[in-house]
UniProtKB/TrEMBL annotation:
It catalyses: Exonucleolytic cleavage in either 5'- to 3'- or 3'- to 5'-direction to yield nucleoside 5'-phosphates. Its EC number is 3.1.11.6. Belongs to the XseA family. The lineage of its organism: Bacteria, Pseudomonadati, Pseudomonadota, Gammaproteobacteria, Pseudomonadales. The keyword Acetylation does not apply. The gene is xseA. It comes from Pseudomonas jilinensis. GO terms for cellular component: cytoplasm; exodeoxyribonuclease VII complex. This is Exodeoxyribonuclease 7 large subunit.
Length: 458
């Protein structure tokens, strides 16, 4: 149901409402039609009760509206609120039923106009600083004697006139090339980026990015992120000269150097001719002084060399004397060498004589004769020892020999196989036996074997 249909229904039905019902329906209608809006205006009548809520009025040149910012949302506001501050607010349209006051219930509050730009400036500055784009170690040094400089600015602005004037006065030999671009407005930032890229390809010794003073909105293209990143990517040394001395832009922080004004940027890159002349004169005086000192040192060295220089004849005489001395030393060394070799030869001859084969044969002959004389005696002694041992063994053998037993009257019975008979059971009747005696043997025949064991007790 749209707003017209709602109001037509209320007027046809002639419904009588209480004030509370009217305010309640009005509140519902406002909150339904305006669920969330943004408004901008000047803050006034700011009240801060102990509850932590904020109450104030937003107004412009023709109207005003009451606003409420409750504590849970007021705690998130980081700016210093005061009467007269231009702010931008977000909230819903409502109605305070108790008094029938039309009001805005806000949930967000931020600075408007210059305040919003300042807030965006600080946010981008913090972001780029965190990325290291402001770091001193990444900044390139400016050339001390540039020959060709590109100036990125508006060709019709006051900044280029100031720069040309300073270079004409201080260093007219430096070539200036204007890289034209817009420096204000919505299209200025992309144009500045393209100008930086063109200047980078042109091969300048340095670049000046400049414009004159103005409001924060006027200088805002130099606070754009795309311009800052283009300056950071540029390999040519850059000088940022945007606004007046008190103005600071993001370009100032990213560029390799900042100049407070365009004229100061020109002075920064243009050597002072008078100062260069004074420096040249100083170098000239220093060079002359060094030349005088060098000549004085060379004269002293020449005198010293002249005193040390001798006639060639004297030098030859010294060399002849040295040659004679070397000849005498050579002769002495030769004689000493020969004597040493003679002594060594004699020592080797004596050692060779000691090792002569005839002498060795004589010694061996004497040793052989001595052994020949010892051999018969040794053989006789060995034979005598063996005879004595043989006799001893023979006596020992005789004591245990069966023949000795036979000599005492015993005999040995042998069967026809030559085996000794030890028992009568080994014989049979009619068996032929042999009896071996101490002297000879007998042939016997067994009549009848009688097994019987003799006892010593018998």
């Amino acid at each position: 149901m749209n707003d017209d249909q709602l109001f037509q229904r209320l007027s046809r039905e002639r419904e009588v409402l209480t004030i509370s019902q009217l305010n309640a329906r009005a509140r519902s209608l406002l909150e339904e039609v305006f669920p969330q809006i943004w408004v901008e205006g000047e803050l006034s009548n700011l009240a801060r009760p102990s509850s932590g809520h904020l109450y104030f009025t937003l107004k412009d040149a023709k109207a005003q509206v009451r606003c409420a910012l409750f504590r849970q949302h007021a705690q998130r506001v980081r700016m210093d609120l005061r009467d007269g501050l231009q702010v931008r607010a977000r909230g819903r349209v409502s109605l305070y039923e108790g008094r029938g006051d039309y009001q805005l219930i806000l949930d967000s509050l931020e600075p408007a106009g210059d305040g919003a730009l300042r807030q965006a400036f600080e946010a981008l500055k913090a972001q780029l600083q965190a990325e290291g784009l402001f770091a001193a170690e990444r900044k390139r040094p400016l050339p001390s004697h540039p020959r060709r400089i590109g100036v990125i600015t508006s060709p019709s602005g006051a900044a280029i006139r100031d720069i040309i004037s300073v270079f004409g006065r201080r260093a007219p030999y430096i070539e200036l090339v204007i890289v034209p671009t817009a420096v204000q407005g919505r299209e200025a930032a992309p144009q500045i980026v393209r100008a930086i890229e063109r200047a980078e390809r042109a091969g300048f010794d340095a670049l000046i990015v400049a414009r004159g003073g103005g409001s924060l909105e006027d200088l805002w293209p130099f606070n754009e992120e795309i311009v800052a990143r283009a300056l950071a990517a540029c390999q040519t040394p850059t000088v940022s000269a945007v606004g007046h001395e008190t103005d600071f832009s993001i370009s100032d922080f990213v560029a390799d150097a900042r100049a407070p004004t365009p004229s100061a940027a020109a002075e920064l890159l243009s050597p002072d001719g008078q100062a260069m002349l004074r420096q040249f004169q100083l170098y000239q005086r220093q060079l002359q002084q060094r030349l005088h000192e060098r000549l004085a040192r060379d004269h002293l060295r020449l005198d010293s060399l002249r005193r040390r220089l001798r006639h060639p004849g004297e030098r030859l005489a010294q060399q002849a004397q040295r040659l004679d001395d070397l000849e005498l030393r050579l002769r002495r060394a030769h004689k000493q060498f020969l004597a040493h070799q003679q002594q060594r030869l004699e020592r080797l001859g004596a050692r060779l004589q000691l090792q002569h084969p005839g002498r060795q044969l004589g010694l061996l002959s004497q040793q052989l004769e001595h052994l020949r004389q010892r051999l018969p005696r040794a053989m006789q002694q060995s034979l005598q020892q063996r005879r004595q041992r043989f006799s001893s063994l023979a006596q020992t053998l005789h004591l245990v020999s069966p023949l000795a037993t036979l000599g005492r009257g015993y005999s040995i019975l042998l069967d026809d196989q030559g085996q000794a008979i030890r028992s009568a059971a080994q014989t049979r009747a009619g068996q032929h036996l042999k009896a071996r005696l101490h002297d000879g043997q007998l042939d016997l025949r067994v009549e009848a074997p009688t097994p019987h064991t003799l006892s010593l007790l018998d």
